[in-house]
Amino acid sequence: MNNLLEFLTVDEVSEILKIHWQTTLTYIKTGKIKAVKIGKGYRIAKADLLEFINKNQVKIKRKEK
Q1: Measured between alpha carbons, how far is 3 from 8 in angstroms, rounded to an integer?
Q2: pLDDT over 80 (residue 14)
Q3: What is the CATH number of the domain that holds 46?
Q4: What is the pTM of this model?
């Protein structure tokens, strides 16, 4: 199956990001991470997780000597 069409559970995303599952749910409910609701649970496309990660990268400025 194409990687972009693969879905992850809230627990799987939480494990990847090393955050609490409730934080992942908050991100979904506030629109920070795109998800689809299937039954009582949410599924996150791998492509949407990568988009979230790319949008939240931090650029560190180095001091020049």
Answers
A1: 11
A2: yes
A3: 1.10.1660.10
A4: 0.81
